[in-house]
Write a structure and sequence with these properties.
Blueprint (H helix, E strand, L loop, with lengths): L7 H7 L11 E5 L17 E5 L15
Parallel strand pairs: 1-2
Length: 67
Amino acid sequence: MSNPRVSRPVCDATFPPGWFDTGGPLKVWTTTANDRHEHGRAPGGGYLIKVHRPAPEPAHHEQQTIV
């Protein structure tokens, strides 16, 4: 896998047994608009499915002043 933050032991603990042995996909969130799915990039040779999730806007709160 190219992403060092997603390791095979973590994936094996998260997904059902044999998921990646049969070429199961791996869905990851990304903040970039590059949403191309990549064949063979998931553990076991399945698709790495990228889903765009924009970064949340920071909350804006008006400063209240007691007079």
